[in-house]
């Protein structure tokens, strides 16, 4: 069992995403132990399934992998989800 909660986010790439995510975590008093962000060209079909990565015609999306203090309750996880939406 991990000592951290892992958060994964996939959103259209835009300026200041990393700062925005860090501020959201700070509002919840969560310590960010690790944050990886990899803007990637992703192409999807009509159902939203990934059909190509880093190919021509994809949409630039930011893929985040974040490790924060361990959250143990559903209420804490829901608060994090709402803060990041």
UniProtKB/TrEMBL annotation:
One of its GO terms (biological process) is L-glutamate catabolic process. Residues 1-84 form the NAD-glutamate dehydrogenase N-terminal ACT1 domain. Pfam families: GDH_ACT1. GO terms for molecular function: glutamate dehydrogenase (NAD+) activity; L-aspartate:2-oxoglutarate aminotransferase activity. Transmembrane segments: none annotated. It comes from the Bacteria. This is NAD-glutamate dehydrogenase N-terminal ACT1 domain-containing protein. The lineage of its organism: Bacteria, Pseudomonadati, Pseudomonadota, Gammaproteobacteria, Vibrionales.
């Amino acid at each position: 069992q991990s000592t951290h909660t892992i958060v994964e986010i996939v959103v259209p790439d835009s300026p200041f995403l990393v700062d925005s995510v860090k501020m959201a975590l700070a509002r919840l008093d969560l310590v960010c132990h690790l944050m990886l962000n990899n803007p990637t060209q992703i192409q999807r079909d009509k159902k939203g399934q990934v059909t190509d990565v880093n190919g021509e015609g994809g949409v630039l999306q930011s893929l985040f992998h974040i490790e924060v203090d361990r959250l143990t309750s559903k209420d804490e996880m829901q608060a994090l989800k709402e803060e990041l939406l």
